[in-house]
């Protein structure tokens, strides 16, 4: 073979090898991309599958189903029963959720579950043994109510006297018992000597069905505490991010509840409170003063601002010792997700509009314009 032919032959072979290597690289790259897409799809699909499985099966379907939970049923068995009856999406997810939350003490019986119920609501009923019964009566506890007002509402709907309710709800031994039973929301913070009523703000505002004609004070209180457990659990991640305890959260939310009417106002009022806390400025919110006085007033006067109480946020910086009323979901969400603002002042006008300002000078202008000094 001549030298030229030999050279051409070598070049041809090199070209073939280069072409083959190029094809191999394309194949490897294509396989890699496909594998990454598949892996991403599996991870993403798994995330959305689990997220969906944790939601109610059908939030709009309030129709209840009579479901029997046999004696000795494990979370696995209960999950299968609930899945078969269309109450949860997936039995395994239910079991893992129960394990993750360290829930136990489920009771056997015949229950009324609906597809609209959350996993926490289902678990709460299984722990309390709320079996299938006719609702005898319902009690609605509105948002922003204090313990004394809740006592009045219950006295009008049950045979329980206001004094009886307040005696139980403020009994130190009973409160300690509730702390032991509901440690996810109740801590020794409520036993602080500066706290006016230990369970103030912990009885969640909602409509409560009762299945007996004369529930005890203890049963009523525990029903409300369980609802608070469920609501706080739903906001656990945000609480952790803000490094808030349930007591701090409910305290902040109670002030927002007392000051606001609509959701947007709540978020901006929350931003004012947080902006003030950040610079160690007094919160100066009138509802805390009225709570300290223990009476409702149409207007908060300067003389009222001098009341000697740890709840008086004109005299003391930081959060008050505890909640001043119960707070609904909107105020709790505002406490955890405040608006971003530079506001340090707000003022409610006589027609209900809330005005926000960055400076005291601007605030005083609005105050002189809308609030009578007579």
TrEMBL record:
Site note Important for catalytic activity, residues: 259
Location in or out of the cell: Cell membrane
Sequence intervals crossing the membrane: 27-50
EC number: 4.2.2.29
Top-level division of the source organism's lineage: Bacteria
Assigned keywords, A-Z: Cell membrane, Cell wall biogenesis/degradation, Lyase, Membrane, Transmembrane, Transmembrane helix
Recorded coiled-coil stretches: none
Membrane topology designation: Single-pass membrane protein
One Pfam family per UniProt: YceG
Enzyme class (EC, first level): lyase
Catalytic activity: a peptidoglycan chain = a peptidoglycan chain with N-acetyl-1,6-anhydromuramyl-[peptide] at the reducing end + a peptidoglycan chain with N-acetylglucosamine at the non-reducing end
Main localization (coarse): membrane
Family: Belongs to the transglycosylase MltG family.
Known role: Functions as a peptidoglycan terminase that cleaves nascent peptidoglycan strands endolytically to terminate their elongation.
Record-linked HAMAP family: MltG
Record's protein name: Endolytic murein transglycosylase
Species annotation: Sutcliffiella tianshenii
Protein's gene: mltG
């Amino acid at each position: 073979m001549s030298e030229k032919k030999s050279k051409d032959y070598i070049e041809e072979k090199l070209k073939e090898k280069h072409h083959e290597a190029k094809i191999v690289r394309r194949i490897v790259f294509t396989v890699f991309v496909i594998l990454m897409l598949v892996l991403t799809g599996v991870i993403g699909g798994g995330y959305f599958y689990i997220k969906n499985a944790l939601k109610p099966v059908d939030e709009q379907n309030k129709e209840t189903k009579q479901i029997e939970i046999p004696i000795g049923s494990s979370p696995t068995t209960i999950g299968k029963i609930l899945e078969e009856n269309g109450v949860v999406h997936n039995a395994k997810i239910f079991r893992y959720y129960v394990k993750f939350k360290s829930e136990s003490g489920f009771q056997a019986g015949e229950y009324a579950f609906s597809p609209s119920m959350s996993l926490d609501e289902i678990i709460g009923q299984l722990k309390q043994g709320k079996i299938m019964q006719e609702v005898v009566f319902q009690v609605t506890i509105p948002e922003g109510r204090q313990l004394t007002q809740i006592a009045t509402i219950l006295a009008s709907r049950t045979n329980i006297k206001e004094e009886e309710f307040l005696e139980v709800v403020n009994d130190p031994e009973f409160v300690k018992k509730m702390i032991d039973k509901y440690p996810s929301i109740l801590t020794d913070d409520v036993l602080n000597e500066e706290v006016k009523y230990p369970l103030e703000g912990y009885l969640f505002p909602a409509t409560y069905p009762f299945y007996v004609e004369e529930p005890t004070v203890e049963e009523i209180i525990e029903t409300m505490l369980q609802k608070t457990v469920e609501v706080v659990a739903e906001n656990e991640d945000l609480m952790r991010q803000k490094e808030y305890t349930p007591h701090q959260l409910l305290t902040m939310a109670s002030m927002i509840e007392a000051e606001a009417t609509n959701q947007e106002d709540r978020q901006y009022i929350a931003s004012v409170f947080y902006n003030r806390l950040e610079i160690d400025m007094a919160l100066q919110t009138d509802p805390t003063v009225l709570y300290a006085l223990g009476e409702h007033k149409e207007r908060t006067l300067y003389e009222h601002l001098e009341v000697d109480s740890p709840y008086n946020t004109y005299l003391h910086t930081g959060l008050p010792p505890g909640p001043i009323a119960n707070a609904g979901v909107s105020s709790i969400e505002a406490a955890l997700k405040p608006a971003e603002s530079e506001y340090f002042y707000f003022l409610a006008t006589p027609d209900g509009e809330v005005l926000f300002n960055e400076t005291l000078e601007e605030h005083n202008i609005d105050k002189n314009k809308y609030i009578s000094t007579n």
